[in-house]
Amino acid sequence: MNERHAKTLTMMLALPALLLPAVCLLYILFKGIPALDWAMLFGSAQGASFGSVTALWPQITGSLLLMLGACVLAAPVAFGGALFYALAASHRQQKVLLGMMHLLVGIPPIVYGLCGLIVLVHLLHWGISLLTGMVILAVIILPMLLLNSVNAINRIAVGRTEAAHALGLSNGEIIRRVWLPAAWPALLTGLLLGMARALSETAPVLFTATVFSGVAWPDSVFSPVTSLQTHIFYLAQEGANAQAVDIAWASAVVLVLLVTVLSFSASALRKIRVH
Amino acid sequence: MNIQKKIDVGLTIQQSAIKADQAHSLKLSGLSLELGGTPILRDISFALPVHGMNILIGPSGAGKSTLLRCLNLLHQSWQGDLHIMDKDVRTWPDGADALRRAVGLIAQKPSLFPCSIAQNVVFGLGRKARKQVSDEHIEQVLRQAALWGEVKDRLHDKALTLSVGQQQRLCIARALALAPKMLLLDEPTASLDPRSKQCIEASLLELAATMPVLCVTHDIEQAKRLGGQIIFMCDGHLIESGDSVDFFARPERIESREFLRWSVCDCS
């Protein structure tokens, strides 16, 4: 096989990877954008007893609250775990920690949702609430954030850390003056991807945090919320109702745009890291 | 003063310093270390005088670099006794970090921080000291490391723009900024060009006149040039130690003779 044939073959193989997401994205935009307008996004949510006639801002708010809460809960634990891995863990503890995180990354989100429903909602009586959803989403994104933080620290040149130790810098100073300045773009990139993941999860929040309608703004963290993900899920079941399907497409556009903004931000930060 | 003259003066000063002062800056007895169940260092004992050059020489894999890391407490799982300035390092006042500031360690490959040359010099100082440090102090340590002339007009340039030889001298200046009681160097001129090598050797000899310097090398010619006390290691054992002139002229052990002849040693 000559070079030209090899190039053509690899291009043919790569084509579905490029085309499929592009076609999906274009179709979502094609169906969703005509249904979107200002009133649908930010109109009144009062008096709405059924999701298909409400504005989308309560759902956007719910999704963003769940996402931010999950990140606030998971990020310190993930970064702390990465510091333990890098500074204090024995070789055996490092292997166990990484093994556990790789295992947890692979567990289907619906299983986490089920655990949240049984343990947090029923056994601990937290109910279907914003807090329950945040905790479950935090557990889902934690392994991803921790692995990303470990990689970010591992990428810092060993010689630089050793030089700092040899100069008598304490662990705290090494973290603050050597690791954080070098690793922050990678840590932030991981956090943004974690946010995108939290924003995309449907099944766990369906079980633990959301109701279909009737909530514009949660009274407290113990109140349920509505979210874009579950909104789309409910509306998609109303296939006979053209208005519901239109709103589902519009919701999908908003969700895709939010995730895209996060992903592009992560990509931009990666470029800073490279430079 | 040209570099050769500096080397000659340095050698003269350190020889007289060793003879004049028989006190010890570092005493090591029975140091052994295992890593992952493998013995790396076995029952090492030696002492360093208060001033002067000391060369830790031996083939690759002898445990020289590991020994330096033990002296600086980067490895802490060793067994034995180590006293620096008559203080047990395990009970060093203010702990291991304070000891590391007192015992400067310069690695084989220069590792600078992504900031300016001046900021790199003062990187090891505490926050208050960094703010109060004078330009004169920065100049003094850069002069001691034989780097001042090359960087005096660009102290605020990125340190990573320096050549490798200059980076290594900046690492020496960075360690000197902490006013260490002794200096440990792990093959500081490996993979440097002859000119940089000569600069670093000259500045080490000047420093050895005021403090103990322990320099790891497997380069026999460099060890001859630097002189002082030789400590010859092979396969984790200390084989022979003594004055460099005697060691190179009349090595006592067969392993030493073999190493001086072939630069290898088979004592396992």
Give me some keywords for this one.
heterodimer, A: 275 residues, mainly alpha, MetI-like fold, 11 helices, globular, B: 268 residues, alpha/beta, Rossmann fold, 6-stranded mixed sheet, 4-stranded antiparallel sheet, 12 helices, 10 strands
- Say what oligomer this is: heterodimer
**Shape descriptor of chain B:** globular
Q: Indicate the radius of gyration of chain B in whole angstroms.
A: 18 Å
Q: What's the β-strand tally of chain B?
A: 10
Give the ordered list of helices and strands of chain A: HHHHHHHHHHH
Task: Describe the model.
The complex is a heterodimer of chains A (275) and B (268). Helix content of chain A is 76%, strand content 0%. Chain A is mainly alpha-helical. Chain A has a single domain (55-216, 226-274), classed as MetI-like (MetI-like fold). In chain A, helix 10 packs antiparallel against helix 11 (242-274). The two termini of chain A are 38 Å apart. By secondary structure, chain B is α/β, with parallel strands linked by helices. Chain B has one domain (3-114, 182-262): P-loop containing nucleotide triphosphate hydrolases (Rossmann fold, 3-Layer(aba) Sandwich), CATH 3.40.50. In chain B, the strands form two sheets. Chain B has a six-stranded mixed sheet with strand order 6-7-8-3-9-10, sandwiched between helices. In chain B, strand 7, helix 9 and strand 8 form a beta-alpha-beta unit. The interface between A and B is medium-sized, with 16 and 22 residues.
In short:
The complex is a heterodimer of chains A (275) and B (268). Chain A is mainly α and 275 residues long.
Task: Summarize the topology.
The complex is a heterodimer of chains A (275) and B (268).
Chain A: H1 3-32, H2 38-42, H3 57-88, H4 91-105, H5 109-123, H6 130-154, H7 158-166, H8 171-200, H9 203-208, H10 228-236, H11 242-274
Helix pairs in contact in A: 1-11, 3-6, 3-8, 4-6, 5-6, 6-8, 7-8, 8-11, 10-11
Chain B: H1 3-20, E1 24-35, E2 38-49, E3 52-57, H2 64-71, E4 79-84, E5 87-88, H3 95-102, E6 103-106, H4 117-121, H5 127-132, H6 135-144, H7 148-151, H8 164-176, E7 182-186, H9 194-208, E8 212-217, H10 220-226, E9 229-234, E10 237-243, H11 244-249, H12 254-262
Parallel strand pairs in B: 3-8, 3-9, 6-7, 7-8
Antiparallel strand pairs in B: 1-2, 1-4, 4-5, 9-10
